[in-house]
Each structure stands twice: as C-alpha cells, then as structure tokens.
Specification:
Number of domains of chain B: 2
Helix content of chain A: over 70%
Number of strands of chain A: 0
Radius of gyration of chain B: 25 Å
Largest sheet of chain A: none
CATH architecture of chain A: Orthogonal Bundle
Helix content of chain B: over 70%
CATH class of chain A: Mainly Alpha
Largest interface: A-B, 43 and 49 residues
Number of strands of chain B: 0
Radius of gyration of chain A: 22 Å
Distance between the termini of chain A: 23 Å
Strand content of chain A: under 5%
Oligomer: heterodimer
CATH topology of chain A: MetI-like fold
Order of helices and strands of chain B: HHHHHHHHHHHHHH
Number of domains of chain A: 1
Number of helices of chain B: 14
Structural class of chain B: mainly alpha
CATH topology of the largest domain in chain B: MetI-like fold
Shape of chain B: globular
Largest sheet of chain B: none
Strand content of chain B: under 5%
Number of helices of chain A: 12
CATH superfamily of the largest domain in chain B: MetI-like
Distance between the termini of chain B: 8 Å
CATH superfamily of chain A: MetI-like
C-alpha cells in the first residue's frame, strides 16, 4: 500500500477508540473462531437424529432445544455459522473483485469502455435484486457454490460506481503523470499506482457487503432455495421454525437472533472503518 | 423540462433492451425445461406428447429466435401465456394480484412517512439526546433484522401465544357473512402485521435519512436568517428547515417503487397473501418461464419509471432545478 505509515497508524487509532466498531470486530472474530472450530465447540453432532428428543424446548441437555428430528439446535447453529460466514465472505469477495475490475476499467479508460460498463451497471441496478437471485438460483440448483456466485454477481454495482468515481479523480494526479512519463504501462498504473489509493471506500463497501450477503442467503434458505438440508444454515432452521410455529418458538427465535447479531456486527465494523477513514469527521 | 423528459425517455430504450436480454438469458440458464417438470413426475407421458408440449411452448426453436419472438410480442405488451395448467396470459395473472400488493405497500409507506419524518426531525433538532441515541440504536438493529424473522416472531407472539391477530391470508373464513364494518375490521386485523413488519426496514432507513437531511438543512444560511429576523423556533424548524429536508424524500419514494416486487416476495409467502410477490415465488418454484420473465421485466421497468418520476417530480418541486 502506498499509504504512509503515519496515516495508517492514525486510522488504526481512530478505529480502536470507536467502541461500537470494536464490539463489531470482536463479535466477527468470535464468530469466525466458532465457525472454524465447529467440531470442537458444538456440544453434539449437528446431524444426529434422536427420536426420543423431538422438539424439546431449551433445557440443560439442549441449550437451544431440538428440532423436529431431535437434532440439537445449538450444534446446528454452530455449523450454520460456517455456511453464513462462507457465503457472506465469498459473495462479498466476488462482488468486490468484479466491481473493482469493471470500475477501474471504466474510470481509467473512459470513452466507450466507460459508457458500456456504466450502462451495464444501470441495467443491473434496475432489477429487483432478491427476485432476480431467487429466479437464477431456482433455474440452476440451490447449492452453496451457486448461491455464492449468484449473490456475488448481482451485488457488484455499488463497488463499480465507487471505484470509477475514485479513478476519475485519481487518474489526473501528478503521481500518475509521473509514473506514465517514466514509461509505466496502463496495467501497472491501474493496479500499482491508482488502485491502492482507491481501496478505502472499497473496504467499507466489502464489509457492509458481507452483512448484505448473509441476510440474502438467510432469506433464500428460509424460502427453501438456499443451502439444502441436511446441511444446516440459519435460514433453513428458521424455515423449520415456520413449519412448527404453533409448538416450537425456539426454532424461530435463536437462528434469527444469530443473523441479527452477525449482520449488526459487520455493519458496525463497516461504519466504523468508514468513520475512521474519513478525515472530515475528526 | 420537455426536452429533458424526451432525452430521458430516449435513454431508457437501450436500458430496456438490456433488461429484456438479461431476463431472457436468466430464464435459459436452466438445464431443465418446463416440459421435464410436467412430465418426469408422470411416467405415462409418451415421447410424442413431450414433443407436442415442446412445440406448444415454442421451446424447439433456436434460442435467438425465441428471444426475437418474445421481444416482438413484448413490444405490444404481450407477455405471453403462463406455463401453468390454466395457461392464462401473464399480464392478466399479474394484474389481478396487484391491488392487494399495492395496498399493503402504500399503507406501509404511509406508516413509514408518518412515523419516520417526525423521528428524524426530532433526532436532528435534539442531536445527542437520549431519544437521538435510542433511535440510532433502533436504526442499526432495524437494518440488521431479517424481515422474515421479524414476521415469524410477530406471528408466534401475536398470532399463536396471545391469539390477538390472524397469521395468514387477508380475510377470515366467515368474511362473507360479516357486516360492511365487520369486513373492514377483518381486513384490518389481517393486514396489520404484514403492513407493520414490511414498514420496519423502511422506517429505519427513512428516519436516518430524514435526520441527516435535517442536520444539513439547519446549518444553512437561510436558517440563520430566519432566526435572525425573529421567527419562532417552531416556524424555523417546521416551515423553513423541514420543507427543504423533505425534498430528497421524493427521490426515496420514487426509488421504493421496485420494492413492490422484490420485498413482497418474502413477506407475502410468509403471511400467505396472494399478491404479486407470492405469484412470482410460485412461478419461480414451478419454472413458469413466461411469468418469471414478465416479473423481472416488469420489476426492472418499474425501477426505470420510478427513477424518472423521482427526477421529474424533484425538478417540479425545486425552483432551482425547474429553472435550468
């Protein structure tokens, strides 16, 4: 990164003093740890069916109760954290990659390249996103790879716009002219000189993007078009909750709470990074 | 203004073509076809019958020809016929479901405005107060809450445990026997949860937005002028600042038009309300290509029109924009 160490240290200090952002960061870290260590922290096998323990309310044996097959809800939620984080991070990664590439090309080259890319952005922005994702997933097959790809490929437009705007102003800077007069090629200027300076807003968008993707995946799973059982995800436990709404409130309460806390944590972290990067807010 | 309008309308044409192209590509990503779906479950269907079905649906023609034919029909607002057994025109199926979806969305939009605008104004004029901090927390939590989960919790609490409200549909079984007033009350009881739940997300966004606009507005010079000439604080805030802070809300209203389709998919299937959202969800599940394409195209066109309406009405409301 061509950011000066002083500036970056400053950023870290400002982020550290933001208590809400730090709380978000801690929650995110804990979740990642839980997801990675799922086999060690889960009290039970998430897929073990127990016909003697069907739909038990929360108690000492099963902290969050059991589902209609007698499986331990807490264990399923811990394994579900893997799905949510995986989908969130990979989808946001795809969206960021596509958005950065197209935004950089549009901003740097201008002309018909820019016109073409930005009209494509406009077109994609017109679609009712959730319905588009739903339709594509149903046409393909609802497995985790398709879900990550489709969410990623339908949510890059914001990043593309951000990056293009940054490039439009950055490409006029003196250091770009200097690099060019030293004989640097377009690719080198784009990726080594301009892009590192345009990454700040992208980082914010990517963090908020993880939250958005987790929400979208849970909605898909809830409608039966997300991660398919027996693989556990927070969304598909919630759809069991709906099926058993008259008798098992715990199936509805806990997974939703997990989604809420996770999304909140990513949003707080994202907002915190934005505030810490914005010198005007000091 | 007219020249501007013409230019905007002309710019919509390539976007429309792009929209139809993407919708069409999406529908043809699918490895299976509706013919498979209609026949694999039924082993008695013969090869000949399958071929006949394929011909009826036009699926035997090359893809580009199918697209061209579909586009030609689209130009005269013919969205084709549904693949469902009833085989009715797509436009009719959508049109008959629209009233209930629009009603719910309008009610929830009104709720959002009535609640969010005062919240935003009050938070901005009492920046840093307990109320302001509480609403900030509410906004963050509101943004992070999955709508369908909130719906589920409300159904469990008010529908199942307290038994106050019905949890699905829009009217009771004995609706027809009720008096005129009873019927209205019955609708209200059924629509209460869907309207409130679908308003929560908008509430968080709109109050945040209104707060930011107000903070911006009260810093302007004309507010200082208004105060300096001795106007009361109420007049300054509500007549001078708020009117200007409301302006960008027009844009938001225009942009919320497409949510009619996207947002309705989830909560209409939860509350078992037969609006367009449920219609499209069922269409997706049944691989009803024409209906899904109709939904995508209609949703996207709605967004285009929403953007245009927002810009135009913004222009009409703001004298500075109107002049240029």
């Amino acid at each position: 990164m061509s950011v000066q160490p002083g500036m970056f240290g400053d950023f870290q200090d400002r982020l550290r003093t933001n208590r809400l952002a730090m709380a978000g960061a801690v929650v995110v870290l804990v979740l990642v740890a839980v997801a990675l260590l799922a086999p060690l922290v889960a009290p039970d096998d998430p897929n073990r069916i127990d016909v003697d323990a069907i739909l038990l309310p929360p108690g000492p044996d099963h902290l969050f109760g059991t589902d209609e097959l007698g499986r331990d809800v807490l264990s399923r939620m811990i394994y579900g954290a893997r799905v949510s984080l995986e989908v969130g991070i990979v989808s946001a990664g795809i969206a960021t990659l596509v958005g950065v590439l197209l935004g950089a090309l549009a901003g740097y080259y201008g002309g018909w390249v820019e016109a073409l890319i930005m009209r494509f952005v406009d077109i994609m922005l017109c679609f009712p996103t959730f319905f588009l994702i739903l339709a594509v997933i149903a046409m393909l097959e609802p497995n985790i790879l398709n879900i990550m790809a489709v969410i990623g490929l339908t949510s890059w437009m914001g990043v593309a716009r951000l990056v293009r705007a940054e490039f439009l102003s950055l490409k006029e800077r003196d250091y770009v002219t200097a690099a060019r007069s030293l004989g640097a090629g377009d690719l080198r200027i784009i990726f080594r000189h301009i892009l590192p300076n345009a990454m700040a807003p992208v980082l914010v968008a990517a963090t908020l993007g993880v939250a958005g993707a987790i929400l979208t995946e849970s909605g898909l799973s809830f409608l039966g078009l997300g991660v398919q059982p027996p693989l556990a995800s927070w969304g598909n436990i919630l759809s069991q909750g709906k099926a058993n709404i008259e008798i098992a409130w715990w199936l509805s309460l806990f997974p939703g709470l997990a989604i809420l806390v996770t999304v909140l944590a990513y949003n707080l972290l994202g907002e915190g990074i934005r505030d810490a990067l914005d010198p005007r807010l000091r | 203004m007219l020249k501007y309008l013409a230019k905007r309308l002309a710019m919509m044409v390539p976007l429309l073509i792009g929209i139809t192209f993407i919708s069409f590509v999406v529908m043809h990503l699918a490895p299976g076809s509706p013919v498979d779906l209609a026949t694999t479950l039924n082993p008695k269907v013969s090869e000949i019958a399958m071929e006949r079905l394929t011909k009826i649906y036009g699926l035997d023609k090359p893809v580009y020809e199918q697209y061209w034919n579909w586009l030609q029909r689209l130009a005269v607002l013919d969205f084709g016929r549904s693949f469902a057994p009833d085989g009715r025109p797509v436009l009719d199926k959508i049109a008959e479901r629209l009233p209930i979806t629009i009603t719910i969305n309008l009610l929830s939009l009104m709720l959002v405005l009535v609640v969010a605008v005062p919240i935003g104004v009050y938070s901005a004029t009492h920046q840093g107060s307990v109320f302001d901090q509480a609403t900030t927390v509410f906004v963050f939590v509101g943004f992070a809450t999955p709508t369908f989960w909130l719906a589920l919790l409300c159904m469990t609490l008010f529908g199942v445990h307290l038994g106050w409200l019905p949890i699905s549909g829009i009217k009771s079984l004995d609706h027809a026997q009720m008096s005129w007033l009873g019927q209205l009350g019955d609708y209200a009881r059924h629509l209460f949860l869907p309207v409130v739940v679908s308003a929560i997300g908008g509430l968080a966004g709109m109050s945040r937005y209104m707060r930011a606009n107000m903070l911006e507005a009260v810093r302007q010079d004309y507010i200082t002028t208004a105060r300096a000439k001795g106007l009361s604080e109420v007049a300054v805030i509500y007549r001078h600042a708020m009117r200007n802070a409301m302006m960008p809300v027009i844009t938001i209203l225009g942009l919320s038009l497409p949510a009619l389709i996207g947002g309705s998919v989830i909560f209409e299937s939860i509350f078992a309300i037969n609006g367009v959202g449920k219609l499209f969800y069922d269409a997706v599940m049944a691989r009803d290509y024409p209906l899904v394409m109709g939904g995508l195209v209609l949703g996207a066109v709605l967004t285009l029109v929403g953007n245009l309406l927002a810009d135009v009405s913004y222009g009409l409301a703001d004298p500075r924009v109107r002049a240029s």
